[in-house]
Amino acid sequence: MILSDRSIKELVRSGRLVIEPYKEENVQASSIDLTLSGEVLFYRSECIDIKSSHIPVERISIPEEGLLIPPKAFMLATTEEYIKLPEDITAFVEGRSSLGRLGLFIENAGWVDAGFEGQITLELYNANSCPIRIYKGVRICQIVLAKLDRKAEKPYRGKYQGQKGATPSRIYMDFHS
Questions:
Q1: DSSP result, 47-116
Q2: If you average pLDDT over residues 104-112, what whole number do you get?
Q3: CA–CA distance, 27 with 4 (Å, rounded to integer)
């Protein structure tokens, strides 16, 4: 069951759902808009080996005048908000339609497991043929919350738990467990 604005607000007021910073005006009928933090990350490698734990990245702070995303460029960003989901609530992350209509694709793994805690890393891709300028604090994505039929037996405790900032892939850990 997808949660309504009333249910979302009740979860936040009760402390079961943590969103910091929280702006009630960002709660929509069936989602919560999240904003872009001030840092992005670009991979700087000629070849990415998914087994390597040392893939070069460049972190860039978004200046006041915004950051140009070149055409066909891929980067990682993160939400300003730090969230903590209860063990019986999951979330879907969706890019905002207004940005998608400009050619800016905003993704993440698409799913945030019950029990996750941290900032949400976003994959941004400029599919347009011209640069797109983005700004810190813009409403970048939305999360849709859904109630599980019961509390998760194994809530999320994975390799991204507690992440802060744009977090590069940790897939290499799949090979070293």
A1: S--TT-S---EEEEEPPTT-EEE-TT-EEEEEEEEEEE--TTEEEEEEE-HHHHTTTEEEE-SSEE-TT-
A2: 84
A3: 9
In the predicted structure, residue 61 carries a pLDDT above the cut 90: yes
d(CA 79, CA 167): 11
* pLDDT above 70: residue 129: yes
Which residue of the set 80, 94, 117, 123 is catalytic?
A: 123
Distance CA 158, CA 154 (A): 10
Per-residue tokens: 43: 């991979």
Q: Exposure pattern of 74-97 as b/e (b: 16+ CB <10 Å)?
A: ebbbbbbbbbebbbbbbbebbbbe
Q: How far apart are CA 118 and CA 80, in angstroms?
A: 10
Q: Say whether 24 is catalytic.
A: no
**CB neighbours (10 Å) of residue 151?**
12
Locus of tokens 């309504």: 4
Instruction: For residue 78, report the phi and psi dihedrals to the nearest 5 degrees.
Output: -150, 160
